[in-house]
Design a protein that fits this description.
Layout (H helix, E strand, L loop, with lengths): L4 E2 L9 E2 L13 E7 L4 H17 L4 E7 L9 H10 L6 E3 L4 H5 L7 E5 L4 E7 L4 H15 L10 H7 L3 E2 L6 E2 L17 E4 L10 E9 L4 E3 L10 E7 L2 E8 L5 E7 L14 E2 L5 E5 L3 E7 L5 E7 L5 E9 L1 E2 L5
Parallel strand pairs: 3-4, 4-5
Antiparallel strand pairs: 1-7, 2-5, 3-6, 6-7, 8-21, 9-20, 10-11, 11-12, 11-13, 12-20, 13-19, 14-18, 14-20, 15-17, 15-19, 16-17
């Protein structure tokens, strides 16, 4: 007989959105989906439409969705940033800020995203780490709801979950690339940390490492462009990658809006593969506008080849935290 594991309590956090503070004990008689996430995590953002759909479909049938926001980067601990994201993403279910990893640690969580399904008696009956398994997760939601009310008609699983599972293939990509020296993958031979330094690019570049040219400061969690320039090309960060999709987490050091110009293989990003956040100026140059701390989608391609990406800005307030990649598709382009 499989040992039952009682769900830990949601204690240690005092900031809740869309709800008064909730507890597992007070939710007995309900099915609870606890979703550990953070708003700049690309894997979390890919799962978000499914979580929202389950809340919409099953809220009135006995499901309570709780998003536990356990931040990765320091700016994600600011309640105003999370509140803005929740509003912009139309998240209607309860979200709790787990800034000190207290709930995360009680659940012994190690990954973003992580999902736990808790039955009406308060026991964990199912968990899944990472993306995928959407059909299986929804089937378990239905099963636990029907354990409470066997006569309830739920119908088939959502079309969203059913379609996502059909015929999708994922390919190996460049791994997530951090810029801060605590986890970073700086490729420059001259490495200076915690102070402003003039970096020189190297002749040889390797996939999965980033390279600096110009004046930057590398801190434990990010790299900052450390001077204002006349033109964006004077200083830059570049990296070689292999992926369909490219994202970057960026913010301003102070409240300032600025542009980050982008080149792919020494040219503006082609409009056919531009990410959701890419725009173009009157000269045809590709850029993203940084107005808030978040993840920016740069490239959506169907060609799994190695490319060189370059980011440039005249601002001395640009902070870059991490690059993430993805290569899942129904079929691989020729």
């Amino acid at each position: 007989m499989k040992t039952k594991i009682r769900a830990p309590e949601l204690e240690g956090a005092d900031i809740w959105f869309n709800s008064e503070p909730l507890s597992i004990k007070d939710l007995r008689g309900k099915v609870v989906l606890v979703d550990f996430w953070t708003y700049t995590c690309v894997n979390c953002l890919r799962t978000l439409p499914f979580v929202k759909e389950w809340h919409k479909r099953y809220e009135d049938k006995g499901l309570v969705v709780i998003g536990v926001h356990t931040p990765e980067f320091r700016f994600e601990k600011e309640s105003a940033n999370l509140e803005r994201f929740i509003k912009n993403a139309d998240i209607e279910y309860p979200v709790v800020m787990d800034n000190y990893n207290q709930i995360w640690n009680r659940f012994a969580t190690k990954y973003w995203p992580s999902k736990y399904l808790i039955d009406a008696d308060g026991y964990i009956r199912y968990n899944h780490f990472g993306e995928g398994a959407y059909a299986r997760t929804e089937e378990m939601i239905q099963q636990l709801i029907k354990d409470i009310n066997p006569a309830l008609e739920l119908g088939p699983i959502s079309e969203l979950a059913a379609k996502e599972e059909a015929g999708k293939v994922c390919y190996s990509t460049t791994p997530e690339t951090y810029t801060g020296y605590a986890l970073g993958a700086l490729g420059n031979l001259d490495k200076k940390y915690d102070r402003v330094f003039e970096f020189e690019d190297t002749e040889t570049h390797y996939e999965g490492r980033y390279y600096l040219s110009g004046t930057f400061e590398i801190e434990p969690g990010f790299v900052r462009h450390a001077r204002r320039t006349e033109t964006p090309g004077e200083d830059y960060l570049s990296l070689y990658f292999k992926s369909f999709e490219v994202n970057v987490v960026m913010k301003a050091a102070v409240d300032e809006e600025f542009l980050v110009y982008l080149e792919l293989d020494d040219r503006p990003i082609d409009k056919s593969i531009k990410g959701n956040d890419v725009q173009y100026d009157f000269e045809g140059r590709s850029y993203v506008k940084v107005t808030e701390p978040r993840m920016f989608n740069l490239i959506q391609n169907t060609n799994l080849l190695t490319h060189k990406l370059k980011l440039m800005s005249v601002s001395d307030q640009l902070e870059l935290y991490a690059f993430t990649f993805g290569a899942c598709a129904k079929e691989l382009a020729a």
